[in-house]
């Protein structure tokens, strides 16, 4: 601003000198020479120019003052925003480290526990799959003469599929049975096994 103030003072002094010279000269004075008239006209133009320059400088000075105020306001607002962002960034960093230090180990522990449970469930499923019955069928027919004794002694795993009475009395003579079989893990086995 010092340069602007000096410039305004300099133009003011120059303007005063021009006005003073112009006031001492009478342009309509017939005794003035042609060069004096031209010089007087030049001084008038210079005075007008200096007045316009002074007005422009005053306008620029006002604009600069307004611009400086706006820049100052923007600096303050920017500093507040940076401070706020720094606080938020610090809080986020703290939260991330807190989660890393507390929640992450807990999650890792739970994952380890779940992995063990999954392994146990997989083992149980494999065991169940190996023991699962996927099909059932009857084996070949076996015959026994009932009239000779207790026939099959009611063994588990057999189904009586046939009873014959050849002599047509009131007692059966023979019985046919079939073994009940199951398929486990791709192999046929006795139902009781």
Automatic annotation (TrEMBL):
Coiled-coil ranges (or none): 50-77
Keyword Signal: yes
Domain of life: Eukaryota
Keywords in alphabetical order: Coiled coil, Signal
Signal peptide: 1-23
Protein name: Tail fiber protein S
Organism expressing this protein natively: Orchesella cincta
């Amino acid at each position: 601003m010092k340069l602007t103030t000096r410039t305004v003072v300099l133009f003011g002094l120059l303007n005063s000198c021009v006005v003073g010279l112009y006031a001492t000269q009478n342009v309509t004075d017939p005794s003035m020479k042609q060069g004096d008239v031209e010089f007087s006209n030049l001084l008038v133009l210079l005075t007008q120019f200096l007045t316009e320059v002074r007005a422009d400088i005053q306008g620029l000075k006002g604009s600069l003052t307004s611009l400086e105020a706006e820049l100052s306001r923007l600096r303050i607002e920017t500093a507040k925003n940076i401070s706020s962002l720094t606080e938020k960034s610090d809080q986020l960093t703290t939260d991330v480290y807190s989660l890393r230090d507390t929640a992450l180990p807990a999650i890792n522990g739970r994952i380890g526990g779940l992995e063990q449970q999954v392994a146990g469930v997989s083992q149980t499923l494999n065991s169940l799959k190996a023991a699962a019955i996927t099909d059932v069928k009857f084996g070949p027919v076996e015959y026994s003469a009932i009239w000779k004794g207790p026939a099959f002694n009611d063994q588990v795993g057999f189904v009586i599929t046939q009873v014959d009475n050849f002599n047509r009395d009131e007692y059966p003579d023979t019985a046919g049975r079939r073994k009940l079989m199951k398929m486990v893990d791709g192999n046929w086995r006795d139902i009781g096994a």
